[in-house]
Amino acid sequence: MLENSGRAEAPVQGDQLSRSEQICKLIIAAILRGELADNRKLPTEVELANRYGASRTTIREALSRLRSEGVVVSRRGSGNYVQRLPMDEQQARPQLGSIHDVERYYAFRLCVEVGAAQIASAARTEADIAAMRTAHQALNRAQLSGGTCVDEDLALHMAIARASHNPFFISTIGNALGPIRQCMELAQNLGRPHAAERIDIVDAEHLAIIQAIADGSAERAGEAMRIHIDNARQRIFEGG
């Protein structure tokens, strides 16, 4: 029987902590799947208790732990909100410090994002297709306004990752946004002499990826993403 009245589930503290840890992992998994995005309000304690079959006491413990790790933030009178995904502070992230690093980074992107696009072609829903098209439209508006468009471009790539419904792709690509941003900004700076032409080319590349995923073609989706990332690399090294 589901208990959500606020009473503890069991008198054994160790068991209760174990259950709260499980709830933490379930909430983080929901965040990674894109169900709970940054700055999005979490369900209430009662709703979480019903969702995970836990007591409100256990839910409070799980939320307390998520707050201590910086994943969730509490806003007075409003509730709990997703703040960020947990990061391993002890693990140093690789930095882009040389041309060789950039080359290796694009090799990494080919492996990960091509795979994500292929999986997305089979896993995507109508809502995912709509999200990708919405992100693409936002990118087009930013381009027309003369902005840098980096945030909008990153949002489109994340929409594609989320369409895979694979938390490992979503997490890996999400954690890689910093270097992706660096590469996009570098490509923009090098490409300004041909900005209008470059925008049209990149737009066509994005559309090819979205359409292939929408059509459910893993082969075309993977190839379209491969072409896009390889061309992005060339735009840095060849200034195109």
TrEMBL record:
Keywords: DNA-binding, Transcription, Transcription regulation. Pfam families: FCD (PF07729), GntR (PF00392). The keyword Transcription applies. Residues 17-85 form the HTH gntR-type domain. CDD domains: WHTH_GntR. It comes from the Bacteria. SMART domains: FCD (SM00895), HTH_GNTR (SM00345). InterPro entries: GntR_C, TF_FadR/GntR_C, Tscrpt_reg_HTH_GntR, WH-like_DNA-bd_sf, WH_DNA-bd_sf. The keyword Transcription regulation applies. This is FadR family transcriptional regulator. It comes from Herbaspirillum robiniae.
